[in-house]
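Board notes (copied after class):
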Amino acid sequence: MSWKPLRVLTPRSILPALAVMLVLAAGAAAHANKPVPFGDRVAGPGEAEATPVSTQSLSTADLDLKVGPGLEAFHRQSGEQAWSYRREGATALYLSMAGDNAIVVWDDGLVTSVRPGDHEVRWHRAVPGLADWLRGDGEPGADKRTDAQRKELAQERAAAALHTVPQGASAWVAVVTPNLTMGLRDADGDLRYNSKPPGGCVYDPLRTVGTEYAVLVPRSCTNSAGQAVSGGINGYRLDSTGWQLNTGPSASIKGLDGSRVLITDGPIVPARVFDTKAAAPEAACGSPSAPFAAVRPQGGCTDPAASQVQDAPVGQDAPAGDQPPAQPEAQQSQQSQQSQQ
């Protein structure tokens, strides 16, 4: 083994080592002064930095969550502030729960997930085009809106854009804009799908409806002359493939329960029920295919004759089953005379 004593090291041989040390020191200083990613700032009462808390002492059920200007958490029993989550230069517009986690839409087009128990920001997702649609810049009459109207519009659109689907432990999030819809897994914010409408069509977030299993997004289309033509409904799920339903240009969707929706498509086409759990339409009462349909009519079909009997007027002093049938007055008088004789 050979080695050189320190006295043989020349200044030229020491310079590279010093340069490396200076670069490392500068990098450490830059890292220390690096701003928090996405401008996140979680603070406790009095704007002090919030410290992690035990999930056993604080849970989602213990808190009231509100939005504006960030996500604010208050103790449900005392009403005192527990913590606040804010982002520098951004305003929280809408909040929806995905299981025990809070999903927040911000005015800069970012979507975040927060676990309220320990106020941990779990993931961030930027949605292309969301911020522009929330602001509504360039739309007819946009320059005449007041600040209050702009704020109200942004909040309304944020609520229409965000949909959380429970599905137990596999909760997921859908974000809908006119030109894009995205599906995110809540467990880690992973992007599971993104979908653009066909040419000449746009999605309609304001008509979008979510159930416990899926999100149904209507789309409207126009021809080259700008006239409305037939549209459709896109259905999205994470645990199975989605589906498409053909409709008119202004079909409406109304939730009936946790899985079924009612689709109304104008005065000519009969309204229909679609089951998002089975991903199939519900057969109509009286349909020849009802006994063989994937989804049979909910609760069965009522007999029209039974319906008429049920709707018949009855006396107010006795239940319908105990009320004797009404008799004509002439018959009652005849029976009275016979009884007197």
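Comment from the instructor: Confidence is low (pLDDT under 50) at residues 1-7, 23-35, 303-341. The radius of gyration is 32 Å.
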